[in-house]
Write a structure and sequence with these properties.
By secondary structure, this protein is an all-alpha fold. The chain has eight helices and no strands.
Length: about 130
């Protein structure tokens, strides 16, 4: 998972965005229970997902959204995961990402390759992330 995310973020062609998306979909299912969340946390998935919060490539927004949803599940099911998230700087990264997304929405600017579907995902990402700051 770490190699796939690193490859997508750095825009190398070793791993495809579709492969990373499929892995994130699998993890989404696995973290839907407290035991799955615990297993994924112990396997080191929180540090693996945090770099996606910093990825501002509009073509990767769906990956960021999936990462936010997975991280949110970790926070819902596991207090140690929330502490680890904060310790790794995840809250600061989320706040920075929120500032970027809010600024983008306030400016009303769409990037040339952005479509309405990814704009809706951006708003959902902001909404999901805002739950962490409470």
């Amino acid at each position: 998972m770490q190699k796939a995310i690193d490859s997508v973020i750095s825009d190398t062609s070793k791993w495809s965005v579709h492969f990373a998306e499929a892995l994130l979909s699998l993890v989404t299912v696995l973290v839907s229970t407290s035991s799955g969340c615990s297993a994924m946390r112990e396997a080191g998935f929180i540090p693996t997902l945090i770099p996606l919060l910093k990825d501002t490539n509009p073509q990767h927004l769906h990956l960021v959204e999936k990462a936010v949803r997975i991280l949110e599940a970790f926070m819902d099911y596991s207090n140690p995961a929330a502490a680890l998230f904060r310790d790794l700087g995840g809250l600061d990264d989320t706040i920075s990402r929120l500032k970027i997304e809010v600024s983008h929405v306030e400016n009303g600017g769409k990037q040339p390759d952005e479509n309405s579907e990814s704009s809706a995902r951006s708003v959902n990402t902001v909404r999901s992330s805002s739950n962490w700051a409470r």
